[in-house]
C-alpha cells in the first residue's frame, strides 16, 4: 500500500529515517552504545586477514562503500567484484578468510552462485540481506539483516542506505575485534551513527530544491556524476538510479578520473552532479569541478555549509546538506541522489516503480 505517496519509490525514500534506526539497532546496543552481532549470529573479525565482497547493481555500490569502511575503521584489506565476475573468475582466494555478499532480495542468481562458490572454496560466508528466509539468508554462515522492510520499487533506495548502515556498524565492530577502534572511539562512532535518522530527515527536506533542478535534468540526454573517496561509490549509485528510472544516460566516475577521458564530454549542455561533502577529499574534488566549470559544464554541487563557503565554483548550484561525520556521508548523500532520479523520472513521465526491461529481483543469469 502506497498510503498517501504517489509511488512506492517515494514512500521508500521517506521511510529511510525509521528503517535506518531499526537497522542500526540490530548491530548496536542502543543503551550502552556498544557494537554487537545481530541476534543469533557469530562472527569474530580478530583473525580475518582479508575480506572478499561481492554483489550486483546497487548492492555492489554498497559493497564498494563497505570496502572503504572495512579498510578505514578495521584496517582489513578487501577484494571486491561484481558477482557475475566473481563466480567465474576463479581468482586465487589467497588469504581471504571471509566472503561478504550484499543483496536486498537474497535471490539474485549471480550473487547466490558466488556465495555457493565461496562456500565450495571453504570460505566463511556472510550475507547482508533484506529478505528474511531468502535463499541467501538460509545458505550463508552468517546473516547480517538490513531491516528496511519490504522494498517494492524496482529502484533500490531504503535497502541501499540500510546496507550502508549495516556495513558501517559492522566495520566498527570489526575494528573493535581487532583492537583498531578503542572503547571511546567505539562509543563516539556509534553515537555518530545514531544521528543518521535525523540527518536523513534533513536530507529529505532538500526535495523541493531537487525537484526544481529535476526540471532541467529532464531536458538532458546525458549526465555525469563525480565523487572521491567515500563519495565515489555514490557517484556510480546516483548515475545508476538516474538511468534506470528516467532512461537518461548517466555515468558515475571517480572525480580524479575526469581528465583521463570523460572531460572530453564536457560542454555547456552537460550536467555534472558532484558529491562533495567538506571532507578530506574536498579540495581535490573542487579542483576537478573547476575544470568542468572552465568548459561550461552545468554543475550541481552536493555539499555542506563549509563546502559551499569554501569551494564556490562560478555558475554552480549547491544543494546544502548538514555537516556530518565522514562515516555518515554515503548514507545521507544518497538521499538527494534518489530524489533527483525520482523527480527527473516524474518529469519524463516514465514508470517510476516498474521501469522498462527491469525486474526487482534478477533470478536468472
Ligand atoms: O536483490 P539484490 O540486491 O541482489 O539486487 C541486485 C540488483 O539487481 C539491484 O540492486 C538493482 O541494481 C536495482 N534495480 C538498483 O536500483
Automatic annotation (TrEMBL):
**Which reaction does this enzyme catalyse, per its entry?**
D-fructose 6-phosphate + L-glutamine = D-glucosamine 6-phosphate + L-glutamate
The protein's name: Glutamine--fructose-6-phosphate aminotransferase [isomerizing]
Coiled-coil stretches: none
A molecular function (GO) term: glutamine-fructose-6-phosphate transaminase (isomerizing) activity
- List the active site: 360 (for fru-6p isomerization activity)
User: Which domain of life, per UniProt?
Assistant: Bacteria
Can you name the source organism? Jiella mangrovi
Q: What does this protein do?
A: Catalyzes the first step in hexosamine metabolism, converting fructose-6P into glucosamine-6P using glutamine as a nitrogen source.
Q: What class of enzyme is it?
A: transferase
> What is its subcellular localisation?
Cytoplasm
List UniProt keywords, sorted A-Z: Aminotransferase, Cytoplasm, Glutamine amidotransferase, Repeat, Transferase
Q: What is the annotated quaternary arrangement, including any partners?
A: Homodimer.
Domain SIS stretches: 41-180, 213-355
Protein EC: 2.6.1.16
